[in-house]
Amino acid sequence: MEIVFLGTGGGRFNLLKQIRATGGFRINSKSANIHIDPGPGALLHSLHLKQNLHNLDAVIVTHYHVDHVNDAELLVEAMSGSTLKKGGILIGSKYTLEGDTRGDRGVSLYHQNLVEQSYVGNWGEKKKIKTKKGEFEIEFIKTKHDEKSCFGFKLWIEGVVIGYTSDTEYYDGIGESYRGCDYLILNCLKPVYDQYKGHMATADVIKIVSIAKPKLAILSHMGMKMIPVADNEAKKIEEETGMACVAAKDEQVFGTASDKFL
Ligand SMILES: [Zn+2]
Fold it and tell me: What's the gap in Å between 167 CA and the centre of ligand 1?
């Protein structure tokens, strides 16, 4: 099992500069290959890192903001044999698949029709997903973000538990929701609070990690203020919580084969 970061950048300013890439991350395992939040560059970085697009089993889009959904339709085309046959699994937030109150949606109905299975992730639900090679289980976790149907998740695959907060503000109970993770990926946009709501700063991550106690906390989805200080912030989180924490780098790979943490 490995987790490959095809991007560790977030935020509207980094997004257009691509100081850190915004391709999301991919879980590769014997049971399933899953691409999570394929933002702009997911396709190109997958090709660059020799991630086989045609053995992708599932795409998960936690919400329809462009830095999370932009390349999802391209990956759906890869899962469906370049649109020639139905294939793959698509899991998305309600707004991503069904649309918001204005009718905007993240993945077109045309592309939704190309997959074999599609599911809307609803907070609190736990779902077993069968792939061609095996299965994984996913539990959808509440977020507080301006895409109201956005979810975080805990995912069980080959005996490993991977948590991902997606984009969210801190709220009471979020730390408890992520207990039991081996890896917990936290979208920590900024070191300190600013006028923009809907995202976490280092202090929020400290609160979550000290309650959730993952074997390894991984920071990602970093904005312009976070990128230059990310390693220091990770060290601060380690010191405050006593849990291992790293700030992911673009193209970094974590996994049971190489990690000292598991
Ligand atoms: Zn967002």
Answer: 5
224 CA → ligand 1 middle, Å? 15
Residues with CB under 5 A from ligand 1 (ion): 65, 167
pTM of the model: 0.97
Token pair in block for residue 137 = 């289980």
Superfamily designation of domain 2-250: Ribonuclease Z/Hydroxyacylglutathione hydrolase-like (3.60.15.10)
Rounded Cα–Cα distance for residues 219 and 245 (Å):
8
Percent of the chain with pLDDT over 70: 98
Rounded distance from Cα 69 to ligand 1 centre (Å): 10
How does pLDDT run across 90-136, given as a tens digit for each residue? Answer: 999 999 999 999 999 999 999 999 999 999 999 999 999 999 999 99
